[in-house]
Amino acid sequence: MLRRPEVRAHDLLAAFAVPRHFADATFESYRPDPAHPSQRAARERLAALAGAIAAPAPRGLARLVRRAPEPAAVYLDGGFGVGKTHLLAALAREVGEHVVYGTFVEYTHLVGALGFAATVRALSAHRLVCIDEFELDDPGDTVLMARLLRELADHGVALAATSNTLPESLGEGRFAAEDFMREIQSLAERFDVVRIDGPDYRHRAAVGPAAGLPDDEVRARAVGEGVTCDDFSDLVAHLRTVHPSRYGALLDGVRRVGLTGVAPLTDQADALRLVVLVDRLYDRDVPVLLGGSGTEGLFGPAMLRGGYRKKYYRALSRLSALTP
Question: Which domain of life is it from (predicted)?
Answer without folding.
Answer: Bacteria
